[in-house]
């Protein structure tokens, strides 16, 4: 039985293991509930869901578990791109549309309304709200605090962790450069914030008082034990949960993860306009020399949506966004409960071995 620490106590969970909220359908209510039922914290990746979609999913999670869970949002402001930058990107994307038999259409909106999404989280009184890409306005955070919602922010540097702490979050995710999906960087240039988990976590832990959760490349119990050694009090796993039975990740995405290696991924702006780590493919390769000209998130994300959707229908990995971290060889199949049980069991073994055999070291 694991002793409680500040993370498990605050989240009211058994094991310090969080399943990352992953926008785009990878974290359906079945997965979220299974993780929470197994003693971790399941998270609904709600970034791309409509307000009513979020409400439905939250209710579905609650019908499956009475345990705590989180909802994750992408802090996004309404944008007005210049027609020129949109046209330039559309022209780069048109050849793929032609290949897929699609006609170019201007997206009706670039992203869901963050304000409406957050409103639903309040109305549904979700127990934990986690977020990335920025810090929500103080008026929102204040209301969540008054309601007793636990707040988790994402940092990729010490300075971001300090800003989150100042804003009053309860827990900070330190997202290392190994992490799959979008970089959470919000204070400073993202290329300077590519700090590996091993270097980032102890520096963040030294500089903030709030408990730290390590994310990026954690796939098994060795990763959990290492994160604890670095001063984290929990881990957040994304990629490892994508290949679970309850995952909503596309089967082609799952196959690519299971056959991938530490060399398979790259950080790209091609799909969304924001740096994100995914498995290298044709679209990423083709647009690599044009990345600087692409419009920012969420514009580019909206412009590539039709292509990504059609490619997924065709089971074509070359034009899909296959977000994944660097720990690919450590991915495995099984249920979410199996994964949590294994991660926790392996960590116990590592910690026991390290403390039993100290004569091996000094
Ligand atoms: C497919 C995918 C989608 C992601 N979407 C989100 C998201 O919507 N919100 C978020 O805070 N983090 C998101 N992340 C990042 C995770 O929170 C986490 O930082 C990352 O998965 C940790 O690295 P790992 O993939 O090596 O475990 C995503 C990651 C992946 C792989």
Automatic annotation (TrEMBL):
<comment type="function">
    <text>Nitronate monooxygenase that uses molecular oxygen to catalyze the oxidative denitrification of alkyl nitronates. Acts on propionate 3-nitronate (P3N), the presumed physiological substrate. Probably functions in the detoxification of P3N, a metabolic poison produced by plants and fungi as a defense mechanism.</text>
</comment>
<keyword id="KW-0503">Monooxygenase</keyword>
<keyword id="KW-0285">Flavoprotein</keyword>
<keyword id="KW-0560">Oxidoreductase</keyword>
<keyword id="KW-0216">Detoxification</keyword>
<dbReference type="Pfam" id="PF03060">
    <property type="entry name" value="NMO"/>
</dbReference>
<dbReference type="InterPro" id="IPR013785">
    <property type="entry name" value="Aldolase_TIM"/>
</dbReference>
<keyword id="KW-0288">FMN</keyword>
<dbReference type="InterPro" id="IPR004136">
    <property type="entry name" value="NMO"/>
</dbReference>
<keyword id="KW-0547">Nucleotide-binding</keyword>
<dbReference type="GO" id="GO:0018580">
    <property type="term" value="F:nitronate monooxygenase activity"/>
</dbReference>
<dbReference type="GO" id="GO:0009636">
    <property type="term" value="P:response to toxic substance"/>
</dbReference>
<comment type="similarity">
    <text>Belongs to the nitronate monooxygenase family. NMO class I subfamily.</text>
</comment>
<dbReference type="GO" id="GO:0000166">
    <property type="term" value="F:nucleotide binding"/>
</dbReference>
<protein>
    <recommendedName>
        <fullName>Probable nitronate monooxygenase</fullName>
    </recommendedName>
</protein>
């Amino acid at each position: 039985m694991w002793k409680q620490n500040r993370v498990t106590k605050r989240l009211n969970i058994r094991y310090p293991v969080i399943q990352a909220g992953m926008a785009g359908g990878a974290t359906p209510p079945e997965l979220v509930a299974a993780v929470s039922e197994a003693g971790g914290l399941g998270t609904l990746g709600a970034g791309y869901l409509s307000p009513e979609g979020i409400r439905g999913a939250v209710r579905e999670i609650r019908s499956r578990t009475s345990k705590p869970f989180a909802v994750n949002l992408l802090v996004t402001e309404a944008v007005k791109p210049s027609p020129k930058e949109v046209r330039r990107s559309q022209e780069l994307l048109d050849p793929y549309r032609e290949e897929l038999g699609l006609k170019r259409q201007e997206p009706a909106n670039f992203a869901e309304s963050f304000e409406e999404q957050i409103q639903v989280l309040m109305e549904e009184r979700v127990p934990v709200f986690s977020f990335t890409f920025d810090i929500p306005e103080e008026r929102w955070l204040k209301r969540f605090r008054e309601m007793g919602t636990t707040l988790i922010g994402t940092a990729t540097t010490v300075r971001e962790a300090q800003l989150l702490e100042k804003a009053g979050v309860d827990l900070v995710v330190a997202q290392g450069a190994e992490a799959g999906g979008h970089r959470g960087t919000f204070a400073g240039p993202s290329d300077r914030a590519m700090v590996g988990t091993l270097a980032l976590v102890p520096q963040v832990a030294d500089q903030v008082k709030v408990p730290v959760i390590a994310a990026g490349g954690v796939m098994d119990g060795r990763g959990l034990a290492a994160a604890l050694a670095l001063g984290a009090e929990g881990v957040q796993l994304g990629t490892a949960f994508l290949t679970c039975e309850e995952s909503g990740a596309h089967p082609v995405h799952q196959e690519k993860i299971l056959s991938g290696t530490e060399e398979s991924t790259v950080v790209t702006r091609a799909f969304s306009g924001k740096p994100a780590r995914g498995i290298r493919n044709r679209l990423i390769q083709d647009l690599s020399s044009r990345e600087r000209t692409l419009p920012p998130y969420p514009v580019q994300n909206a412009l590539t949506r039709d292509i990504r959707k059609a490619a997924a229908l065709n089971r074509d990995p070359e034009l899909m966004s296959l977000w994944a971290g660097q720990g690919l060889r450590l991915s495995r199949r099984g249920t979410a409960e199996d994964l949590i049980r294994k991660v926790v069991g392996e960590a116990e073994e590592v910690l026991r071995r390290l403390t039993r055999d100290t004569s091996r070291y000094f």
